[in-house]
Amino acid sequence: MFDWVGNISENISHISSEASNEFFQQYAPGRLFSFRLPMICHTSFLPVPNTKRKMLQKQPEVLLRLVIRMLGAWKTPLQHLMTEMSAMQEAPEVIISKVRDIDEKLPRLLEGIRTILSQVNPAVNETENYSPWLGLKSLQVTDEDSHLFAIHSLLNCLHNDAKKVTACIKVLRC
User: Fold this and answer.
1) Where does the record locate the signal sequence feature (predicted)?
2) CB atoms inside a 10 Å sphere around CB 46
3) Domain 2-173 carries which CATH code?
4) pTM of the full structure
5) Sign of the dihedral defined by the CA atoms of residues 126, 66, 13, 38, in that order
6) What are the pLDDT digits (tens) for 135-167?
7) d(Cα 114, Cα 125) in Å, to the nearest integer?
8) Among candidate residues 13, 78, 10, 7, the one with its CA nearest the CA of residue 42
């Protein structure tokens, strides 16, 4: 099961990196994205350890619950991200397709992680208590540069979270 979720997680991380990089290459030239203050990711408050050593100090159940919360927090933002990008003039179909691919793989990854958690602790009853996403207004601004920056920031957050999930799974796999 760990190999299966590890493969899905690595695939999502790879696809999210491609989507983020492609969006930046297509829409950042001429815009000062790198000079703007980055948006805070909606999952940034989750206490996910940022090093392997710190991850190893956590109980497997704690890491699995963090991964579940992080993955679950992306359900709504991914839907809105696809909707907003689809509404753009000259919609970035390749990038939308990558986000759609992630959106389709996320529930399978989430279910796999829940299965592992139930094996680690059969008494666990994981409820769907995910981080609220309050970023819809930033995606729907009328100023084009701000709109594109919001999409860029959300794609970066997605990729960063995908890397964190993959790192946690690799540590748990050991």
Assistant:
1) none
2) 17
3) 1.20.1250.10
4) 0.90
5) positive
6) 888 888 888 888 898 999 999 999 999 999 999
7) 10
8) 78
